[in-house]
TrEMBL record, chain A:
Protein name in the entry: Arginine ABC transporter ATP-binding protein
Membrane topology: Peripheral membrane protein
Subcellular location: Cell membrane
Keyword Magnesium carried by entry: no
UniProtKB/TrEMBL annotation, chain B:
PANTHER family with a match to the protein in the record: AMINO-ACID ABC TRANSPORTER PERMEASE PROTEIN YHDX-RELATED (PTHR30614:SF37), MEMBRANE COMPONENT OF AMINO ACID ABC TRANSPORTER (PTHR30614)
Name of the protein: Amino acid ABC transporter permease
Gene3D superfamilies linked: MetI-like
Organism: Lentzea pudingi
TM region positions: 20-39, 51-73, 85-104, 182-202
Length: 250, 215
């Protein structure tokens, strides 16, 4: 790497992870440059969600290196909290704070972590909720919203920290089919605005339309790393062909 | 009835003492117990070990022995002189805190792990996560067992009778000295406790109703 080139936003090098005897990540290599949208595909149990969760250390790794914006992940503590504040994460199950309103959900982290005054935090929260199309739900509790609305609120909550990069861990897998699109639209908008994103998903349409690169994982390994056109029209590996065969036939 | 009416002043004074012992120990044990619960779920193994040891020692020891320690053994150590009344508060607080800790911890375990993960992913520290996200949700589910713990504390204050700290449990002694009917006296003490516990049950119902919304 020359001194002039900026470090990638995410660098994963030689990462191994075990769940007991199960080898879930096998020598994983992955780089996400600034501004790129990388979609991770693969059958369930291939380690793609685990990979996503290792990047902000919700899952610790057993060996290898993970760097975010040139900084290696620190051990658990204040340092790690600071790094996580710059990495937005959206979960499959939304994980909105059940005892707080949608507005309070979006305001909490900026106020506690960034020490933003309440008035400023509220203003930013309302702008973000406007952007994801649920400004009128700000005073409701998460349980009163539909799944799609909850997930859009969760995206707004992550954006409120002004993250350098966003991780999406199967953001539409828990949604009813008619709500998938509204969440994907928000994500596509983010991608257009130049947000660096790592998206674990089963949404092939989103991968085709919004991704700069597609990573295909199987059995804990990165099997393919290519452009969406290449991956969908001419997959190199048999495992990718088999995977695409199964999902594209119906 | 005459036992009560003839000794009304005695009953009121000693039940007042009971309430005071209870109120002070309740507040202190709620605070200490919550801190202990935070230790028990901390990511730092040493903190978890301290919390677990505390609970094991204090919860497994009879309350009477805790009283004996603070009223008879502790003064022999000659560290800091404390009045018998203070010693009673300390004994009740330390003992009850172990139970409060376990109640709070069980409440923390009812909060879905995703709530903590989302907090961590946003950059909240452990203390911020506990204080802003996990504990407020945990406390909703601990109202009934916490009420039981507090009722037990209220009744445990009578253990102080054996250690010359006057409260409702001492009424029998006073009555028997005066030659009053002790059996009826004790029935009135029992009624007194039933009446004192009723507001606690009411408080439980209020909190359960208020916090039952929006899950």
């Amino acid at each position: 790497m020359t001194a002039a080139s900026a470090p990638p936003m995410i660098r994963v090098a030689g990462v191994d992870k075990f769940f007991g005897p199960l080898h879930v990540l096998k020598n994983v290599q992955l780089e996400v440059p600034k501004g790129q949208v990388v979609v991770v595909l693969g059958p369930s149990g291939s380690g793609k969600s685990t990979l996503c969760r290792t990047i902000n250390r919700l899952e610790p790794i057993d060996s290898g290196v993970i760097e975010v914006d040139g900084q290696p992940l620190p051990a658990e503590g204040k340092e790690l909290a600071r790094l996580r504040a710059d990495v937005g994460m959206v979960f499959q199950s939304f994980n909105l704070f059940a005892h707080k309103t949608i507005g309070e959900n979006v305001m909490l982290a900026p106020m506690k972590v960034r020490k933003t005054p309440a008035a400023d935090a509220r203003k930013t929260a309302m702008e973000l909720l406007e952007r994801v199309g649920i400004a009128n739900q700000a005073d409701k509790f998460p349980a009163q919203l539909s799944g799609g609305q909850q997930q859009r609120a969760a995206i707004a909550r992550a954006l409120a920290m002004k993250p350098k990069v966003m991780l999406f861990d199967e953001p539409t897998s828990a949604l009813d089919p008619e709500m998938v699109q509204e969440v994907l639209d928000v994500m596509t908008g983010l991608a257009k605005d130049g947000m660096t994103m790592l998206v674990v998903t089963h949404e092939m349409g989103f991968a085709r339309k919004a991704a700069d690169r597609v990573i295909f994982m199987s059995d804990g390994e990165v099997v393919e790393d290519s452009t969406p056109e290449e991956f969908f029209s001419a997959p190199k590996s048999n495992r990718a062909k088999d995977f695409l065969g199964k999902i594209l036939t119906h | 009835m005459s036992v009560l009416t003839n000794n009304l002043e005695l009953f009121l004074r000693l039940f007042g003492q009971t309430l005071q012992l209870f109120a002070i120990s309740a507040v202190l044990s709620l605070v200490l117990g919550t801190l202990l619960a935070a230790l028990r779920v901390s990511p730092v193994p040493v903190f978890r070990a301290i919390g677990a040891t505390y609970v094991t020692v204090l919860r497994n020891t009879p309350l009477t022995l805790v009283f004996v320690f603070f009223l008879f053994a502790y003064p022999l150590l000659e560290i800091l002189r404390i009045e018998p009344y203070t010693a009673a508060v300390v004994a009740l607080t330390l003992y009850t805190a172990a139970f409060v800790c376990e109640v709070v911890r069980s409440g923390i375990n009812t909060v879905p792990v995703g709530q903590a993960e989302a907090s961590r992913a946003l950059g909240l520290t452990f203390t911020q996560m506990l204080g802003n996200v996990v504990l407020p949700q945990a406390l909703r589910s601990v109202v009934p067992p916490m009420t039981s713990t507090m009722i037990a504390l209220l009744k445990n204050t009578t253990v102080a009778s054996g250690f010359a700290v006057p409260q409702a449990g001492s009424i029998r002694d006073a009555l028997s000295e005066q030659g009053d009917n002790v059996l009826f006296g004790l029935i009135w003490v029992a009624i007194g406790f039933v009446v004192l516990v009723m507001p606690l049950t009411y408080v439980q119902q209020v909190f359960e109703k208020r916090w039952s919304v929006a899950r």
